[in-house]
Structures are given as structure tokens and as C-alpha cells.
What we know:
The protein contains no helices and 16 strands. By secondary structure, the protein is an all-beta fold.
Amino acid sequence: xxxxxxxxxPLRQDWGAxxxxxxxxxxxxxxxxxxxxxxxxxxxxxxGELTSGCTGRPTVMIALLLKEARNFSTLAMFNxxxxxxxxxxGQEEYASNIHVWNCTINGATGGVKIKTWTGGKGIVQGIxxxxxxxxxxxxxxxxDQHYYGSKExxxxxxxxxxxxxxxxxxxxxxxxxxxDCANIGCTDITLKEIGIESVDPNKPASxxxxxxxxxxxxxxxxxxxxxx
Length: 228
């Protein structure tokens, strides 16, 4: 799929059935998304307390249950998150060989993110995020294996062989890099050539790591104890 123009999300009052997804790809094999276009989620309508109408904030682009060779390249994204999700309700799910590069993400809740529910089964592996610009993003680099605060369980989706490379920009909070893995651990994780600063001088950017094994090369904010 090639995006050359601007895809504009509906305003909140026009969201219709209150779907939690805008662009969603499921059970896809061998897909490439590229182009010089823009995805604009018009996220301002969803900020703050939502007490009426659609109250569940939607994710603009989400890739679910992908099998092989997905590529996302050369896109500008405004008020969107680029997310891979897996393992809800104890399901067995797989995502592998996904390459995301040359993207700009502006004003999003999350930047490049892998999220899994506790209690799931399967594996996420062979993922590369590189040449990414993040502007005023809450969680620019994020692995979240306790999605929505779900409690640790004996089983979890395995996260293996994931690279975050050449990612630069700004975070709206201190959560520049958060790698929160389940007790089974994320393995072969690489942070390379990353530089993210907080726009809030009262909340300096930080890197948080739990149960991570891998390698870090020239990444900032630095954390010498990140990898086990």
C-alpha cells in the first residue's frame, strides 16, 4: 500500500461506532506500506478527560497477528501511534520479520511500540525500527508486556530479536525509552544510536528496563544497568 497524500482521521464527534482502531491490518502476509504521505489522527479531540461520546481513544495504525515481511517506510504521522499488539485473552499469536523505517511521528501517545497482554502465548521476533523521528511523543520507544497494567502471569508472549536504531527527537514526559518485559524476559534487544530529550525541564528523559537482555550502543538517555 502506497500513501502519497494526507489521510485525515474523522473528528471525535464523527467517529461513528466508537471503534478503537482506524487503520488495522490482520492476518497479512507480505505487505509493504510506503510513500511520502501523511497520516493525521487529529488527536487533539481525544486529549483530556473524556466523559461523553466516544471515550475510548483509538489507535490510528495497528498491526495484529502478522506473519511475515511487513514493511512500513517513509511516512509522516501526526497524533498517531505505530503499534504491534499481541496475546489478548491468553491467545497464541505471532508477529515476525517486520521492518519500520524512515517515519516521522508527531504528537502521539506512543512512538514505536510493542505491546502484549500478560498470559498470552506465542512470539514476537525479527522486528526492526530504524531512522525514526519522534516529536513531542509520550512514549517514543516502548516495549510494554504489562499492557493496561495487567499483572504478571506464568506465561507470556516471547519478545526476541528487536532492534531500535537511529531514533531521535523529543518526549513530552520522562519516559523516553521504556522496555518493560515479562518475567520470561525479552532477549536479543538492541538499542543503537538513539537520542531523545524531554521537552519538560522538570521531567528529564530516562531509560527504564525490566527483564531485558541485549545490547546498547550510543543511546541516550543512557542506563548502564539496562541489559542483563
